[in-house]
Write a structure and sequence with these properties.
The complex is a heterodimer of chains A (207) and B (185). Chain A has 207 residues and is an alpha+beta fold. Chain A contains four helices and eight strands; from the N terminus they run H-H-H-H-E-E-E-E-E-E-E-E. Chain A has a four-stranded antiparallel β-sheet with strand order 1-2-3-6. Chain A has a four-stranded antiparallel β-sheet with strand order 5-4-7-8, with no helix packed on it. In chain A, strand 2 and strand 3 (115-122) form a beta hairpin. Chain A is extended, with a radius of gyration of 20 Å. Chain B is mainly α and 185 residues long. Chain B has helices at 5-16, 20-39, 45-62, 73-92, 112-130, 134-144, 150-157, 161-184. In chain B, helix 3 (45-62) crosses helix 4 (73-92), helix 6 (134-144) crosses helix 8 (161-184) and helix 7 (150-157) crosses helix 8. Classes of the chains: A alpha+beta (207), B mainly alpha (185). At the A-B interface, helix 1, helix 2 and strand 5 of A face helix 2, helix 3, helix 4, helix 5 and helix 6 of B.
């Protein structure tokens, strides 16, 4: 009879059988570039340079505080260093979308080396009960509740003053997923999008 | 363990100041195990690679918040990966309800004969393993694929080490029974 250790060895060999040991070259280079970028910045570093106009900078401290509150999210907090127009990426959309409660939400999307950066700024999202949060979705044409075609860009909640300024990285091409929606999610452990949609708008892709 | 303790502390120190070479070393050394864990929970090889790549980027972004504890650096990495996979799983949930893993032989690099022999041996184990519950599979994978201690696995799963040890023992027992049933048949 095999011992527990022998069983584990056998299982380990079976589960690791055929697994590629080397990462993809593009992934490796991406990580090196990001590390080098952070290495070059100040101690309150960020992964990406800021393209925001000066009027936006006052919100960044709030953004950093909100970002720090996210567990396992995809937010990237940025510092208040000088903007670098050379590496700001390409703005793909920049517009206002109206929430179901008639509040205004500013959304900006940029294409950068590592993917897409989405900024969301609003004072229209109500503060949710503890544990609940908002989730940002990119929707493809034909998305329905029963047959969703959507990609989550991450989750957020407003700060204690009810302001939202968040920045997310998302591996989404807005040309293929041209609708931006935000749902309010409860802490029920169900990963499916809730039916409580608080904002939806079709993105106008800039040339 | 992904790394030897002596080397690991020095490596993490360099990673904390965003040394690209340190991050490349971490990525190369941890890739196989991270991939194996991700592959069983994603729908394709590319999706698994994407999950591992995203894990490394998030680790880079969070490294200044990493603190040494009993769980270890590798448990921290697998905790990030688990979150990444769960987030990806959310978007696929409606179309992929079965989380069991279909092994992808196209990623094997051996010759035809070696593939056949290894496939038979591995198939026997994997066949039994596939019939364990998802929780049993995960707790064993964290042990044999991730190479985590009970403390490390407990950190990833958000459970107590004693509970993880018991769960592992039960899962091994169930795996043994499944393999014996297969053998008898």
């Amino acid at each position: 009879m095999t011992t527990d250790d022998e069983m584990l060895d056998l299982l380990g060999a079976a589960l690791m059988d055929g697994v590629p040991t080397e990462p993809r070259e593009q992934d490796l280079q991406r990580l090196r570039v990001l590390a080098a970028q952070r290495q070059d910045q100040t101690p309150s570093v960020t992964a990406l340079p800021s393209p925001l106009p000066r009027r936006h900078l006052r919100h960044l401290a709030t953004a950093a505080a909100v970002a720090a509150a996210f567990a396992g999210g995809v937010l990237v907090a940025r510092d208040q260093g000088p903007a670098s127009d050379e590496s700001a990426g390409v703005v793909e959309f920049e517009q206002e979308i109206v929430t179901t409660g008639n509040g205004r939400v500013e959304v900006v999307g940029r294409r950068v080396d590592i993917g897409r950066i989405v900024e969301i700024r609003s004072e229209a999202f109500p503060i949710l009960p503890t544990g609940e949060f908002y989730e940002v979705w990119f929707l493809a044409p034909g998305d329905t509740q029963s047959a969703p075609k959507r990609i989550s860009a991450g989750t957020f909640h407003p700060d204690l003053a009810g302001r939202t300024f968040v920045e997310m990285t998302a591996a989404v091409d807005p040309n293929k997923y041209p609708v931006l929606a935000i749902t309010a999610e409860t802490a029920d452990g169900d990963p499916a999008p809730s039916s409580n949609e608080v904002m939806r708008g079709t993105l106008t892709i800039l040339d | 363990m992904l790394f030897e303790d002596d080397d690991l502390q020095e490596l993490v120190k360099r990673a904390a100041v965003c040394d690209p070479d340190a991050w490349e070393t971490i990525f190369r050394q941890s890739h196989g195990r991270l991939f194996a864990f991700a592959r069983r929970r994603t729908s394709s090889v590319d999706a698994a690679e994407d999950a591992v790549s995203e894990t490394m980027v998030r680790a880079l972004e969070k490294i200044d918040r990493y603190t040494w504890d009993g769980a270890g650096f590798d448990a921290w990495l697998f905790g990030i990966l688990r979150n990444v996979v769960l987030e990806g799983y959310r978007t696929e949930r409606r179309t992929r309800r079965d989380r069991s893993f279909a092994f992808d032989y196209t990623i094997r690099a051996d010759g035809p004969l070696e593939q056949t022999v290894a496939r038979e041996e591995s198939d026997h184990v994997r066949s039994a393993f596939a019939r364990l519950s998802p929780d049993e599979q995960e707790v064993l994978e964290l042990r044999v694929v991730a190479g985590l201690s009970s403390d490390g696995a407990a950190h990833v799963l958000g459970k107590k080490p004693g509970a993880v040890r018991m769960a592992q023992a039960r899962a091994i027992g169930r795996l043994r029974v499944m393999m014996e049933v297969d053998h008898d048949n």
